[in-house]
Design brief:
Layout: E1 8-13, H1 16-24, E2 33-36, E3 44-47, H2 49-52, H3 62-68, E4 73-75, H4 79-93, E5 100-104, E6 107-111, H5 116-119, H6 122-137, E7 141-146, H7 149-159, E8 164-166, H8 172-175, H9 189-197, H10 203-207, H11 211-218, H12 222-228, H13 259-279
Parallel strand pairs: 2-4, 7-8
Antiparallel strand pairs: 1-6, 1-7, 2-3, 5-6
Helix pairs in contact: 4-6, 11-12
The structure holds magnesium ion.
């Protein structure tokens, strides 16, 4: 099968931690919410869309976010609770494909190429995933659909929040050229600023530069940049291998003497190992970006 025949979804939860807090605490709904550390060196882990309207962003120092939005409600958050929700979301993904590459606790690529016969188009699968996440998890997700990972992620970014966007191959030339260069993978803020100073602001501008120029600026990555600015990305969706083994050990302050005590401990440990076996196939627990 040719690479352009693939159907890839990028699913990204909207303001995930903040949305879970607003879901579980109705008094937070419609309000600016910041999830993260409150100490002097605390960092914003997530900002609700109400807080984003004031310029608050994730990874921002909490002190700065509080200055931007003094009325924001700050919540410490609970990673284990978010992890549990993430697992429920992944259960929904698995109803459509086992080709799932988690990127973080709230984001994943799905290769649904092999599922089209069963479910129709990538767009239909995306609609169905969005509606199950809405009805069963009571949260919103944005999904991008395209023939590769780069375009699928671009589509979900462009559709946010609570959106669905399909970039069909014939749309690539409408979408890509006018985008800012920092939308290209591997071009971070610093590189983008350097390019801006050279008058290169859009993908269209970057396309005009020849191979030598690209090589001088991006070194061995220039070939990849050349592909991405034309919407080409052959990278497969990497479903992580399940772990080879999972163990659990415990040291006791006093020896366990009765069969009943030993059984109780064994039961606890078996449950813990079983839980981790489940988690090990889920977003966020395997690979974080
Ligand atoms: Mg997200």
């Amino acid at each position: 099968m040719r690479a352009q025949d693939r159907t890839i979804l990028h699913v990204d939860m909207d303001a995930f931690f903040a949305s879970v807090e607003q879901r579980d605490h109705p008094e937070l709904r419609g309000k600016p919410v910041l999830v993260g550390g409150t100490g002097d060196r605390g960092v914003v882990a997530a900002a609700s869309y109400e807080a984003r309207a004031y310029g608050c962003r994730s990874a921002m120092p909490m002190t700065l976010a509080r200055r931007l939005c003094p009325q924001a409600i700050i919540v410490k958050g609970s990673y284990s609770r978010y992890q549990a929700v993430s697992e429920q979301i992944c259960d929904i993904f698995r109803q459509f494909t086992d080709q799932i590459q988690p990127l973080s606790i709230d984001e994943a690529f799905l290769d649904v190429t092999g599922s089209l016969v069963l479910f129709g188009s990538g767009e239909k699968i995306a609609q169905e995933i969005r509606s199950r996440i809405r009805s069963q998890i009571r949260l919103t997700a944005s999904i991008g659909v395209a023939t590769n990972k780069f375009l699928a992620k671009l589509a979900s970014d462009l559709s946010k929040p609570d959106g669905l966007m399909v970039i069909h191959p014939e749309m690539v030339e409408k979408v890509l050229p006018s985008l800012a260069v920092d939308r290209i993978w591997g071009i971070g803020t610093k590189t983008a600023q350097r390019l801006y100073r050279l008058g290169i602001k859009t993908v269209h501008d970057l396309r005009k530069m020849d191979d030598n120029w690209l090589a001088a600026h991006f070194g061995s990555y220039s070939h990849r940049i050349r592909e991405l600015i034309y919407g080409i990305d052959h990278q497969p969706v990497h479903a992580p291998d399940p772990p080879k083994s999972i163990g659990q050990q415990q040291t006791f302050p006093e020896d366990l003497l009765t069969q009943q005590d030993i059984r109780n401990v064994l039961l606890e440990q078996a449950q813990s190992v079983g839980g981790r076996l489940r988690q090990s196939r889920l977003p966020g627990s395997v690979r974080d970006r």
